[in-house]
Amino acid sequence: MATYCTTPVGRLGVAICLDAFQEPVVERLVSAGADILVQPSANPGPWTPEQQLDWRRSAWTAVRRWPQLRWGLNPMMVGELLGLRFEGQSSIVSARRELWRPGGYEALRDEEGGFVAVAPSATQEAVLVATVPLQAPVGVQPSSRR
């Protein structure tokens, strides 16, 4: 499921979990004018290095592919529900290098960057906070609605 809404900080495009891995879904949100991608997720398995690499195909990749997306927000459910164990690291990502902070997903700390904030653990809840500019970088305009 994918949807969007306008807020005082920007136009949010919401792609639930694996929908953010699908280019046509993200493309539709961007063409509708989304400039912030929100990807609420629940990973029902261990947060392995392979899973972390795969997860970069979602919001992390989207902010690089579509310059209109200023931020990618990926809140991850952690803990247990109905006998299922959920693991993952919530993150705020951006293509703007000047905003990147050291670190990343647990097993990929020395990788390509892109994280403005990332949860310190894949198994414990966390609240992420980041101070970010409200305007898009110079020369990047949100897509107009089709």
UniProtKB/TrEMBL annotation:
One Pfam family in the UniProt entry: CN_hydrolase
Gene3D superfamilies documented for this protein: Carbon-nitrogen hydrolase
Signal peptide (UniProt feature, chain positions): none
Organism: Geochorda subterranea
Domain of life: Bacteria
Phylogenetic placement of the source organism: Bacteria, Bacillati, Bacillota, Limnochordia, Limnochordales
Protein keywords: Hydrolase
InterPro entries attached to this UniProt entry: Aliph_Amidase/BUP (IPR050345), C-N_Hydrolase (IPR003010), C-N_Hydrolase_sf (IPR036526)
Molecular-function GO terms, alphabetical: hydrolase activity
Protein name: Nitrilase-related carbon-nitrogen hydrolase
